[in-house]
Amino acid sequence: MKKSITSISALLLSISLLVGCSSGNGNGETDTSSNTNAAPENAEPSAAEEKVELTWWVDSRADIQDTYETIKNDFETANPNVTINLVQTPDDKIAERISIAINTEELPDVQQGSIGWPLTYAKKDLLVPLDDVVEKEDYDQGPLNSLSVDNKLYILPNSLTAPGMLVNRELFTAKNALDLLPQNMETWTYDQFVEAAKAVNDPDQGIYGFGTYAGDIGGDQGHHMFLWGFGAKTWSDDKTKAILNSPEGVEGLEYLVNIINEEGITPPGVVGLKAGAVINEMFLQGKIGMTFGSLGNISAFDKAFADGTAKAFEYDIVPFPSKDGTTSNSVLFGYGTWAWNTKDETRIKWSKELVKFINSKESMTKMASVPSVIVTRKSLNATYEPDSIQGKTIQLAKYAGDIGLAIPGYAETRNAFFPELQAAIMKSKTAQQALDEFVAKANRIIEQNSK
């Protein structure tokens, strides 16, 4: 049964997109056979009987717990020598939990959780490369690149969402301006975007064409995506340094600052506004024509519409604009699977088998029935109607760029960015000065966290 847009209200805040797995033979070669339940082919004759106990930490989303339990039971049935301890682990204070587990040598073998933090451990040899257990041809390359370090894949993303530009279609309908929006997920230019924003802009009524903000790190990915649309990159390809102060980055920031200060299409006080106020309050109240957001925001909208705390309106999502209008940009949010380097060869071997099994087409088909999951193995894309928000989100995933999850000290670099963005908006610094300062701070953070 296909999911449609009517199912969105059931979605949780973190949703899924892309990736699965392939068969691996345990020795680094790819096994293209379809038997995902078999023991590793390179195992010693007694390997199938060796008793192995694995710990699998999973995220705490309520609607997927039964599916995790089913996958666990399926794997144990196929591999009776393996026992899996399934442990539900909330994401709050996860860094503290992992630090304790590392120091006490009690790391889980496999973990399912937010993709936003684990990659920093790859450089410390605490994660296991997974290239030999993923069928890369069944996934868009962008998400895999974002979750790789030194050209090795460490996380298989399987419960993700990709943001774009949220649109209040009713505001555009009222102004007979729907034709100014991209049709059928086509890409568009920044000039077309500004024209569309002006069409619905009505400050006298408290309505603004473009809802942006710079009050803290929340939603800062949207600012990076804006600059990427001019050809900028935040990080070098080898993920060792910040390079956002390129001519393309400066041009993008100058354009954004001009929109905020000169065009009159953004809410007042952008430097103090936070993402939650713009997306979950102003946009939800019908005061914003377009703003950065994703499928992860939709469940909150539908809940507010259902309980009467906000007047319902028709929303949509379209690609982020770019300078030449031939492409777009997005990033990845959500959940994935990885294996910890426990230094135990036998456990690591079976951990990779479990990761492969969790992300197999068979297991991901089971996950696809969960409201909070959008599987985006290309072979499973037919699960979603192309014109649904879920289907459009899948299309956005192909534009996913590197927001920096693998950058040493990534969380700290986020704190270094928004004060410089504020300075540029307030014109206490030029765009070049602001980005130069961000890059200098970010590179010091990277150096300190690479030791």
SSE topology:
Blueprint (H helix, E strand, L loop, with lengths): L22 E2 L5 E2 L20 E7 L6 H14 L3 E7 L5 H10 L6 E5 L26 H6 L1 E2 L2 E2 L2 E6 L2 E5 H6 L15 H11 L7 E4 L9 H8 L18 H17 L11 H9 L4 E6 L4 H10 L7 E4 L14 E7 L5 H14 L2 H7 L21 H9 L12 H16 L5 H19 L2
Parallel strand pairs: 3-4, 3-5, 10-11
Antiparallel strand pairs: 1-2, 5-13, 6-7, 8-13, 9-11, 9-12
Question: Would you give an account of this structure?
Answer:
This protein has a five-stranded mixed β-sheet with strand order 4-3-5-13-8. It has a four-stranded mixed β-sheet with strand order 10-11-9-12. The protein has a two-stranded antiparallel ribbon with strand order 1-2. The protein has 451 residues and is an alpha/beta fold. The protein has 14 helices and 13 strands. Helix 13 packs antiparallel against helix 14. It is globular and about 75 Å long.
